[in-house]
Amino acid sequence: MVTWWRGVGGQLLNSVYVSRTLIQGRGNAWRACLGKICRQQYLRHYPVKLIRPDGSSIEIRYLEPRSVVQLPVDVNALSEDEKRQRLAARKPKAKKIVQEKIDDNFDPSEYMKFWNPNVQESREPTREEPKESKPKKVRKAK
Question: Record's Gene Ontology CC terms (predicted)?
């Protein structure tokens, strides 16, 4: 199985799987080199799942410890409807402005009982109702 993918520096890498061994090659028009990774756990390379645009996935070794690397989708290969959906998802969402309602029906007389513990009710006695008076203490003569 031969696979092509872009490496860390953007180079095109060719990976060949032969009976559970990975042979990687860097190739261009002038030179090709092959190398075999002999170790199961290569130093400073982490096993990562690479997900291709078609949805298939393979295990690769990557320089950064990531769990999943997803290749980008080729936008030119998509249908017009899918292109519109992707572009709409990229656009910034409009923030909803929440206006606070100011409640100006505050009546401080409702809370007078909390400020002064001696006052049981906040209403004032009317003229018809006499104020309650405490009996005066009478001193006994000696």
Answer: mitochondrial large ribosomal subunit
